[in-house]
Structure formats: C-alpha cells, structure tokens
Design brief:
heterodimer, A: alpha/beta, Udp-n-acetylmuramoylalanyl-d-glutamate--2,6- Diaminopimelate Ligase, Chain: A, domain 1, Rossmann fold, six-stranded mixed sheet, five-stranded mixed sheet, 10 helices, 35% helix, 25% strand, elongated, B: alpha+beta, Histidine-containing Protein, Chain: A, four-stranded antiparallel sheet, globular
Chain lengths: 331, 87
C-alpha cells in the first residue's frame, strides 16, 4: 500500500448495506490523521482491569457492552488510571459499539492525547466482522493495471493489451450485447484472502467512462443505463488482445490451458489476435462461454479429441475385421 | 529505460485537456511510456488512466520510457509539462 491508511480514511470509506460501519467521531478530532497500521482489533478488557502485559496499542481498540459497563463502574469509583494509560499508549482510535457514549472524562483524555473516540450503532460482534473484512480489503496487496475490466455473462474478464489495440472498442461492443463495464484503462486490483482478485475502478467517481478513439470520453451509465455497469467484480479470466502477428503461432486447438500470474494468483488466460474483420466482442464472449463450460467439466477441445480417437479406433477395428474376413471367405 | 522527474506546475493539474495533450504526444513515440505518481504507475498513452491518476498542481511525477525512442519521448513529455501545457 502506497499511502498510510488513517482513521479519517476509515470514516470516509463509502461502505453500503451489510458493509456499513456507521462510525461517527465523538471526540479527539485532532487525532484523525493517525495511521491504522494493523488490520486487526483489540478488546481492552484486561487492560482496563490493570493488566497491560502484551497490550497491543497499535490496534484499533474496541469497547463493547462489557468494557462500557466496566468504564461506568470505574466512573462511580472515580478510578481513571487504567483508562488514561490506554490513551497514553496512543492507539489509532477507540470505538464504542451499541451507541454507548463514554463518560466526559474519557472525552477529555481523547482530546488531551489526540486519540479519536468513535461510536457506532452496531453491536460488537457485527462491527468486528465488518471492520476486519474492510481492513483486510484495505491492507490487501494492490496493483494498478492498464486494461479494461468487463463482466461477460457474469464472469469478470480483464482485457489487457497495448494502447490502441481496441480494448475499449471491444468493451463498447460487449456493453451493446448486454454485458457490463467495471472500469476502463486503470484497474485497481486487490488480492483478498490469498487467492481471489478483486478489480474495481481506481477512482470510483471517475469510473464507468470509456474513451473511444474518434468519439472521445463517453459516460457508460448515462448512455446505456445502470444495467451496463458494475462497481466491483472478481477477476476470473484474463484475455490479452494483440495485433495479429503473422510470424506468431496462435492456439488452434485450444487443448492447452494458459495462465498468467497477477499478485501471486494464477489466472486462466488467453491471447486473441486482433485484425480488421475479426469481431473481438463475439470472440471474447465465446471464449468466456467456453471457459465456463470447461469449469463445468466439459472441455470442448479435449472432448472433440476424444471423439476423434474413438472414431479412429473403431474405424481401425472395422478395417482389421474386414481384412480378416476377406482372407477367410464365409463358408 | 529512461526516467525523469518533473513537477506539474499548471494550476489545475492534469485534467482532461492536459491529459489529452500528453496522450497525443506519447502516441507519437513507439516506446512504452509510463507516468508514475506515489507508486501508482499508468500508461501515458491512456487518457482515462492519466485523468484517474489525479495529478494536482505542484505534484512531482516520474516519466519513464522503454523502447527505441525512449530518450526523445521522455524529453518531449518533460518539455510539455514544464511549459504548463501552453496554458
């Protein structure tokens, strides 16, 4: 990751529905620039009771029902040492779940030590799951790739190739044929949970535009409707477009499976040569359908080869039989 | 491989018009040309990539080229950016 991920970035994330964190900053705004360096959370129950061995202050601290109740008890007893010590250790931020509001004293510590206090309406279990999922995404290995990312028949297909080879034009025709655009030109790829590649526009506000030579920049969502766009998609296949090179051997049978590696994940790939008169969109569509068929266990090229072998064998047996019977005439 | 750092000095940064000029110029060369900002590297021949890079005024970008006319390509692009895209 190039830039540090700060608490402010966490608050700014546009997460919807079952991903929403519903975070609100309650105090310590000066500390919002603090970076979050670990994609994990800590429940500071032990620390509150005074046990600070192995206390991980670099993690986000989560105060759930139990911790909030304990703080209320500390408030009654007016014992603030452990709470203050947590703030002195300067964790990136402190989150209260279930809309719990910490006592004023905690707010004062927050302002004093520049540690933001956030609050969320979610319960602790729900919040931790969502946060860990979000942080895993943020901290996932990332790469920006020059290409066009489309969804063809529900499959995420990354189109690669040199500038001007016709990636955007192919995407345009795919959109016309009812498929979807995820992004054009700059694709932000993240590797999540070790073996899945997620692709999305580098900049969501500028995404879903296509640049087509001769026409200029077009807004795909406005022109073709929302059904023509997709915000994020798993990459399942890579298709490389290249100008037809008459000296190069292209795949004729399709019995061999190619793969490319992106961020350490091996992706099935295919090279499609481009020349005038070849309808690239239909080729891509067919390649994707054929790949799906393979995944479902039907390998067109191998199946065909099997049939050829079977036919040759039976033909061979027939010839042998006929030859034998010619030598020994039927009585 | 030729590399050069250059500061974008025009007030609006690299918006659509300057991006168009960079792409037009880059496409005159056969080398692979890249523009890099804070570890994000994009193809200088792609207009959408360049715009989404979000280069503001006073940002240092690294221009690199790889190919037969790499030197000329980098020099031409640096000159274009130094001249504030003739603004």
């Amino acid at each position: 990751m190039s830039k540090a991920f700060t608490v402010l970035d966490l608050l700014d994330l546009e997460l919807r529905d079952h991903n929403a964190l519903n975070l609100v900053c309650k105090a310590g705004r000066k500390g919002l620039a603090k970076p979050i360096t670990q994609p994990d959370i800590n429940r500071p129950g032990l620390a509150l009771s005074g046990f600070f061995d192995d206390f991980n202050s670099r993690r986000l601290q989560l105060f759930g029902n139990g911790e909030s109740a304990y703080i209320r008890k500390l408030e009654q007893e007016n014992k603030w040492e452990t709470v203050e010590r947590i703030f002195q250790l300067e964790p990136p931020c402190i989150v209260f779940t279930n809309n719990h509001l910490p006592p004023d004293k905690v707010m004062q510590f927050s302002e004093l030590h520049h540690v933001p206090v956030l609050s969320t309406s979610l319960g602790s279990a729900d919040f931790s799951v969502r946060l860990i999922r979000t942080l895993a995404d943020v901290f996932a290995p990332q790469r920006t790739v020059h290409g066009v990312f489309v969804e063809v028949s529900g499959m995420g297909v990354l189109l690669l190739g040199d500038s001007g080879v016709g990636k955007s034009e192919a995407a345009l025709e795919l959109i016309e044929r009812g498929h979807r655009l995820v992004c054009d030109d700059a694709v932000d790829i993240r590797c999540v949970s070790g073996n899945t590649l997620l692709g999305k526009p580098v900049n969501p506000t500028l995404g879903h535009h296509l640049e087509v030579r001769g026409i200029g920049i077009i807004n795909v969502a406005q022109l073709f409707g929302v059904s023509a766009i997709q915000f994020q998609k798993e990459i399942e296949m890579v298709i490389e477009l290249e100008l037809w090179d008459s000296n190069k051997e292209y795949e004729r049978l399709g019995t061999k499976d190619q793969a490319v590696e992106i961020l350490g994940v091996s992706m099935p790939s295919m090279t499609i040569p481009v020349k005038p008169g070849r309808n690239i969109a239909i080729l891509i569509e067919t390649a994707v359908m054929n790949h799906r068929l393979k995944q479902m266990g039907f390998h067109s090229a191998q199946e065909f080869n099997q049939n050829v072998i079977q036919w040759l064998e039976s033909e061979n047996a027939r010839n042998v039989y006929l030859r034998k019977n010619k030598d020994s005439p039927v009585s | 491989m030729v590399e050069k750092d250059v500061t974008v000095k025009n007030r609006a940064g690299i918006h659509a018009r300057p991006a168009g000029m960079i792409v037009t110029l880059a496409n005159k060369f056969s080398s692979h040309i890249f523009i890099e900002k804070e570890n994000e590297k994009i193809n200088a021949k792609s207009i959408m990539g360049l715009i989404t890079l979000g280069v503001l005024c006073n940002t240092v970008v690294k221009i690199s080229a790889n190919g037969t006319d790499e030197g000329a390509a980098v020099d031409a692009l640096v000159k274009l950016i130094d001249n504030r895209f003739e603004e």
